Amino acid sequence: MNILISGVGGQGTLLTSKVLGKYALLSGNDCKLSEVHGMSQRGGSVTTHVRIGEKIYSPVIWEGGADMIIAFELLEAVRVAHYIKEDGVILVNDENILPMPCISGGIPYPYEKKEELKSKYKNVFFIKAEEMAIQAGSSKATNIVMLGALCKLFDFDKDIMEKAIEECVPPKFLEMNKKAFNLGYENVK
Fold this sequence. Notes:
By secondary structure, the chain is an alpha/beta fold. The chain has helices spanning 13-26, 74-80, 100-103, 113-120, 129-136, 142-153, 158-168, 174-187, and strands at 2-8, 30-36, 45-53, 66-71, 84-93, 124-127.
């Protein structure tokens, strides 16, 4: 299983990969992670490669080799979509984070990319993950909502994923994150 996670700094990309790594180990698999931080502290892109299997030798996913892409924002999905396998799944948080050229009025945000993504790739799912995270208690749980959706889409073991979340999330945020996880699991279609 090759999962590429892409987001903007502060969206929880690294925690998501940590939870997936813990899930792999708890389910008896090997796992390799590779992270690219870039200008993450300034709102730049963060990409993480997660490879899970019986024995993994390389942490990097090749173009056309991802079984799933988890994107925390539309443009991040577009930026990494070339990594998806022909029958792979792209899971996108239906949120738009405007890059600086759009904020400053230099160029308009390319909202049409959502329809382009859906027409170019056959398994694209948009979910209102941030809305569900806010319902759970904080927009910072958007990444955990996405993990719940991933769990349902790929038939991951829900109990093991919840255990992985318990081991990776600080205790004071655990109940909120469990609620976020369940909202993602229950609401992906």
